[in-house]
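Hello,

I think I submitted the zinc ion job twice by accident. Can you confirm which output corresponds to this input? Input:
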Amino acid sequence: MEILLISIVIGIIPALIAHSKGRSFFAWWIYGALLFIIAFVHSLVIRKDVKAEEKDMIAFDGMKKCPFCAEMIKSEAIKCKHCGSDLTGNNPNLDLKKSDEEYLKEARRKAGINE
Ligand SMILES: [Zn+2]
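Support: Only one job matched these inputs. Its output is below.
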């Protein structure tokens, strides 16, 4: 009976470690209670869940995900350090098209051609 209690209590250790890496607390608690040494070592060597890591970065580090390459970048960034994309919301190609049209409009106006 005591062994069962002890294993339940020490099972919390790998559960806490795994939970901090974005894994299920209860699944790791059971795992840790049944196979403490293995679960403990396992919880130390597993890598952090990528999605949990990204969530942490967004919540605590002021990061955001680049909409072009999906890498994590600073939320203040106006240019992605991974793919070099412009993140100001102005697509340079769209800007170019618009200014072309404006240029044409202005040229027509200057030439006295009315549409
Ligand atoms: Zn990017």
